[in-house]
Amino acid sequence: MYKLVFFVPETHADAVKQAVFATGAGKIGDYDQCCFETRGQGQFRPLAGANPFLGTAGELERVDELRIELVCEDSLIQAAVKALRAAHPYEEPAYDVWPLAKL
Predict the structure, then answer these.
(1) What is the pLDDT of residue 52?
(2) Tens digit of pLDDT for each residue in 14-71?
(3) What CA–CA distance (Å, rounded) separates 101 from 32?
(4) In the chain, what are the domain boundaries?
(5) Could you tell me which residues are beta bridge partners of residue 6?
(6) On the CB side of 84, how many CA atoms lie within 13 Å of its CA?
(7) 76 in Cβ contact with 23 (< 8 Å)
(8) Confidence grade of residue 77 (pLDDT, cut at 50, 70, 90)
(9) Which PANTHER family does its entry note (predicted)?
(10) Least confident residue range of 24-28, 56-60, 81-85, 97-101
(11) What are the DSSP calls for 32-97, one per residue?
(12) Which of 69, 61, 29, 24 has its CA nearest to residue 45?
């Protein structure tokens, strides 16, 4: 089992979540589409050669984003990350994948 965490502008959160959920990620027992969301602000500065969804190369950008956390079965994690990257508006989405211990 893995924990998948990603950061996405609030305006695109539902579309990205649905793409990830469509892979089967976010299932806990008899429940699906399970996740936890935290609001925050992300920042980044696109470098020369970047093609940013928001902002301008060389200028610091701040965006209201959601941190979305969900669990994912081992057999689904690669598909979930692929769906996340395909649905996310950013050229380089920020995400983490952590293996979870079985206790």
Answers:
(1) 87
(2) 999 999 999 999 999 999 999 999 999 999 999 988 888 888 889 999 999 999 999 9
(3) 21
(4) 2-99
(5) 68, 95
(6) 25
(7) yes
(8) very high
(9) NGG1P INTERACTING FACTOR NIF3, PTHR41774
(10) 56-60
(11) -S--EEEEEEEEE-PPTT---SSS-TTS-EEEEEEEEEEEE-GGGHHHHHHHHHHH-SSSS--EEE
(12) 61
Residue 41 CB contacts under 8 Å (≥ 6 apart), including other chains: 62, 63, 64, 65
Helix (H, G, I), strand (E, B) or coil at 5: strand
CATH of domain 2-99: 3.30.70.120
CA angle in degrees (0–180, nearest 5) for 100-102-2: 25
Tokens of residue 16, six digits? 């990205």
| pTM summary value | 0.90
